[in-house]
Design a protein that fits this description.
The complex is a heterodimer of chains A (364) and B (523).
Chain A lengths: L4 H12 L1 H9 L4 H6 L2 H8 L4 H9 L3 H11 L2 E4 L18 E5 L2 H8 L5 E5 L6 H16 L3 E4 L5 H11 L4 E4 L13 H10 L1 E4 L11 H12 L2 E4 L7 H11 L3 E4 L10 H8 L3 E2 L3 H9 L17 H11 L5 H4 L3 H16 L3 E3 L5 E3 L2
Parallel strand pairs in A: 3-4, 3-7, 4-5, 5-6, 7-8, 8-9
Antiparallel strand pairs in A: 1-2, 2-6, 10-11
Chain B lengths: L13 E11 L2 E12 L4 E5 L4 H16 L8 E7 L11 H11 L6 H5 E3 L2 E2 L5 E2 L4 H10 L4 E5 H7 L6 E5 L2 H8 L33 H13 L3 E4 L6 H6 L10 H14 L13 E2 L7 H5 L9 H4 L4 E4 L7 H6 L1 H6 L1 E6 L2 E6 L3 E6 L16 H11 L9 E4 L5 H6 L5 H18 L13 H7 L4 H12 L5 H17 L7 H9 L14
Parallel strand pairs in B: 3-4, 5-8, 8-9, 10-15, 10-16, 11-12, 12-15
Antiparallel strand pairs in B: 1-2, 2-4, 6-7, 13-14
Helix pairs in contact in B: 1-2, 4-5, 7-16, 7-19, 18-20, 19-20
């Protein structure tokens, strides 16, 4: 597992051109077309006034210095000419030249080699508590069946999917928009730490690089490319997650979406995907059937409601049927008292969680 | 004639001394108003650290005397307010000054003024006007061992709450002069009565008006029973304010001592209407733009703030997250200690602040968290929660999430009347008082960790239930204590000596913190 000089030089060039890419994007240049250009063509296309200077730097690139920098950052690099580079990415002309890995480099191979199924779970940063619960449940169910959960560690759905996979100690890979040694967003530092410790984080950007705006759609193409199925959990119209879905489609991968209430704006994007023919994903089993083949793996059964004593079982069914607040479950203060106690017990047993606004969500 | 020098036989220089009181914090201090008349160019001066109202007093006294048919002495009139080191504020010295001038100019006998204190503001026509703090003044007069107190008629009922002191309410300076000349005492306007038990709190605001919120009513019952501070959370217009305003109606009636305490504070702050005893537990709902001194008291001459006006009652902070950080920070000491100390220069004034706190908030910036209408992301909700956090959130024992009731439930729901809840609350409070007898604490809400361990016995299953959420780090130590306190109150409401597992579970269902029960935590 290593990276050749050419690929490292390419990485340095893309990093040096980052502001130029940003500007070109604003002039409606197609990102994937730009990233597919060879070094000289890329310089010619967007180098602008600094082209000469950049060309000189490019020619003077020293691979050993770049390798030392990698070592100092504690990262490993694997380029597309090396073994261990995810074969699923190789088809695309714009695939990253180098993947930088934080964590054990062998683990990347284990997470995304050709024989391992990988599913991407993406969605809104501003997600509702139900969407978060679904993403977490999908992460848990897929990872428990040995399917790698690929996502981007963003706030909301992405992090929930990673967290679900981590809960069952299953495989999950995060693809970052900045350097692989830069936890982004910073508030997910702890998640990043446990991902790097037990799983892996990758990025095509050199170490220490801050995430540019264009790096997020670029990162999304890697996420979509690594997975055979991309599931969008919650997305409003014009959401970044829809870009990932589009990229997955361009790469010929399956796109799935979790249906949401038709009146909810934050589910408008996913519902539109479903209308356009995306696969309906209701729970981990749906995703497993698609990723591994129908009936190959059975999702971990959730907690069995049938084991509960009768009043709690009835209460749980009421919540599942949409009476998810104390006010909806009780009409007198006395009933409210026992409903509160019952809901707390169901929470303790792991069937429910109290979300914002006092609404209870069924854990999957 | 008290003393003087008979230099001019035609005019006898006379010094008259009248007793009155000034308000200092929540008590009154005795002030001697000395009036000295001597020959010279006619002049009228007041000395003795008075404020603007005291200086302007000259004009009022002058006009009131003439308009009441008395003569204003054509002499050098010097008025001294003693002791000189105290700052004197307000128009309450008018009557004392006028009486002093009348006595010094022999228009009023001196003898009665040794037995009576006088207190009141004069209008130019010689009528007596209502003054703040009559109750505190009457208490001062009794402490000073005076026989009687003469106050404006509107204040008489309030002053008469003090036993062992003769109170006369007068309407004008003429009436005052007749009383002090040995005339008949006017009857008190109405006998001040203690309210009959039961009719104590908010007759017009009843819990029965709140429909479709059974969980919220249950939580308010628990809060009232244990004296717990509550956080009401829900979308705008859901009825949070309506519910908060009805909390006093389910609290036990004020005892007579408490009522006098409350009356004194409100009288000094000048926020009360009508005379007599305040029988209802007060509810104060300051606007969120309030300053720290406005909330806890302050000013160069310390005046009680909203926290003290809510003493023995309810302080309602609507839209808690909108309040200034400094104002909320200032509430910490009053909440913790039950009083606030304000130090100005060498003086320290203590105002009592034993109140029950009710705060309301939207669950998220848009207010519709949990429903499909909500457009807030988890980070925005987290930020909103963080705005609430800090010293105050720790003091809120209960969280009530209110949701819009379904149309059908409004008609079908059974109304719960305040009287019904009040009876249950009273019983629960009696049980607490019996158990906590001698500990210096009256309600479960004020149980310290030590008292909690001493007085709260939970059965094994209840302990196990709590331990489960405590052990995996989802419940903090403070959160753990809060749950136990609330569970103790729930058990008291149920008439149970032991705290059972169902009580702990209900308390967990009303927990205020973000703690997630069970094995998992949010990413």
């Amino acid at each position: 597992m290593s990276a050749c000089d050419d690929c490292l030089r390419r990485t340095a060039l893309v990093a040096a051109l980052a502001p130029h890419v940003e500007r070109a994007r604003r002039q409606h240049r197609h990102l994937r077309e730009l990233l597919a250009l060879a070094d000289e063509e890329l310089l010619a296309a967007i180098g602008g006034q600094r082209r000469g200077e950049l060309e000189r730097t490019h020619a003077a690139f020293e691979a050993p210095a770049a390798r030392r920098k990698l070592e100092r950052a504690g990262l490993y690099a694997v380029c597309r000419h090396a073994d261990g580079y995810p074969s699923r990415l190789l088809h695309a002309a714009d695939a990253p030249a180098v993947l930088h890995v934080a964590g054990d480099p062998q683990r990347l191979t284990a997470l995304v080699h050709a024989g391992v199924a990988a599913v991407a779970i993406v969605g809104a940063r501003r997600a509702g508590s139900e969407g978060l619960e679904v993403a977490r449940g999908l992460g848990r169910g897929l990872a428990a069946a040995g399917v790698t959960v690929v996502s981007g560690m963003a706030l909301g759905i992405d992090s929930a999917a990673h967290a679900g996979a981590l809960e069952v100690g299953g495989p999950t890979l995060t693809v970052l928009a900045g350097g692989a040694d830069v936890p982004y967003p910073p508030s997910k530092r702890n998640l990043y730490r446990s991902l790097v410790r037990t799983q892996a984080a990758v990025s095509e950007m050199p170490p220490g690089m801050r995430p540019w705006r264009w790096a997020f759609p670029a990162r999304n193409r890697t996420i979509a490319g690594l997975a055979s199925l991309t599931i969008v959990v919650e997305a409003a119209e014009r959401s970044g997650s829809l870009i990932t879905a589009e990229l997955a489609q361009q790469l010929g991968r399956t796109v799935g979406a979790v249906p949401g209430p038709v009146a909810a704006p934050r589910c408008a994007g996913t519902n539109a995907l479903l209308r356009d023919g995306a696969l309906v994903i209701r729970h981990a089993q749906d995703a497993l059937d698609e990723a591994l083949g129908i009936g190959v793996a059975t999702a971990l059964a959730g907690r069995r409601a049938s084991e509960l004593e009768s009043p709690l079982r009835v209460l749980l069914r009421e919540v599942e049927n949409g009476r998810d607040t104390v006010a909806a479950l009780a009409s007198t203060p006395g009933e409210a008292s026992s409903a509160l106690a019952g809901l707390a017990e169901l929470e303790l047993l792991g069937f429910l969680r109290r979300g914002p606004g006092g609404r209870y969500t069924r854990l999957l | 004639m008290l003393f003087g020098h008979a230099s001019a036989p035609s005019v006898v220089p006379v010094l008259a001394r009248v007793t009155t009181f000034t308000i200092d914090g929540l008590t009154s201090r005795r002030i001697a108003v000395e009036v000295d008349l001597r020959r010279g160019l006619p002049a009228f001066t007041i000395v003795g650290r008075g404020d603007a109202a005291v200086r302007e007093s000259r004009e009022r006294v002058h006009a009131a005397l003439l308009n009441s048919g008395f003569a204003f002495p054509q002499r050098r009139v010097t008025v001294n307010l003693a002791p000189a080191h105290l700052r004197k504020v307000g128009p309450g010295f008018d009557l004392a000054t006028a009486c002093g001038v009348l006595a010094a100019s022999a228009q009023l006998p001196l003898e009665q003024l040794e037995r009576w204190a006088v207190f009141g503001e004069l209008s130019l026509s010689g009528e007596l006007r209502h003054c703040r703090g009559a109750l505190a003044v009457a208490e001062g007069a009794r402490r000073a061992g005076l026989a009687g107190l003469l106050v404006p008629r509107e204040c008489a009922r309030e002053a008469a709450l003090v036993a062992g002191l003769q109170i006369a309410g007068a309407g004008s300076l003429r009436e005052v002069a007749s009383i002090l000349s040995g005339g008949p005492l006017p009857a008190l306007p109405e006998p001040p009565l203690v309210a009959p038990a039961g009719a104590a709190a908010g007759e017009d605001l009843d819990l029965a008006d709140v429909r479709g919120h059974p969980a919220a009513i249950r939580a308010v019952t628990i809060a009232a029973a244990g004296g717990h501070n509550v956080l009401l959370s829900g979308p705008p217009g859901i009825g949070k304010t309506m519910l908060a305003r009805r909390l006093p109606s389910v609290l036990p009636a004020l005892s007579r001592d408490e009522a006098i305490e409350v009356t004194r504070i409100h009288s000094i702050a000048g926020v009360r209407a009508g005379g007599g005893l305040i029988e209802r537990r007060p509810l104060r709902a300051p606007h969120h733009t309030i300053s720290p001194p406005g909330l806890v008291g302050g000013g160069s001459l310390p005046a009680p703030g909203e926290a003290s006006l809510a003493h023995r009652g309810v302080l309602f902070l609507d839209e808690l997250s909108e309040f200034g950080r400094a104002a909320l920070e200032a509430l910490r000491q009053p909440l913790e200690d039950g009083h606030v100390a304000i130090v100005r220069g060498q003086r320290r004034v203590v105002f009592p602040t034993v109140f029950q706190l009710v705060a309301s908030t939207n669950p998220c910036p848009c207010g519709f968290a949990g429903s499909v209408r909500c457009r807030c992301g988890p980070s925005e909700i987290a930020r909103h929660r963080r705005k609430l956090s800090g010293p105050l959130l720790d003091r809120l024992d209960l969280l009530v999430d209110m949701q819009r009731p379904e149309a059908g439930s409004l008609q079908s729901s059974v109304a719960t009347s305040s009287a019904e809840v009040r009876a249950a609350v009273r019983e629960a409070r009696e049980r607490q008082a019996a158990r906590l007898d001698g500990s210096g604490v009256l309600t479960n809400a004020r149980l310290s960790s030590r008292l909690l361990r001493e007085h709260v016995r939970a059965d094994a299953a209840a302990h196990a239930s709590l331990r489960r959420s405590y052990a995996d780090g989802t419940l903090s130590a403070r959160g753990h204590d809060r749950i136990l306190r609330v569970a103790r109150t729930i058990a008291d409401l149920a008439g149970s000596r032991r705290v059972g597992v169902e009580h702990v579970r209900e308390a967990l269902g009303l927990r205020q913190d973000d703690a997630v029960l069970g094995a998992e935590r949010a990413a």
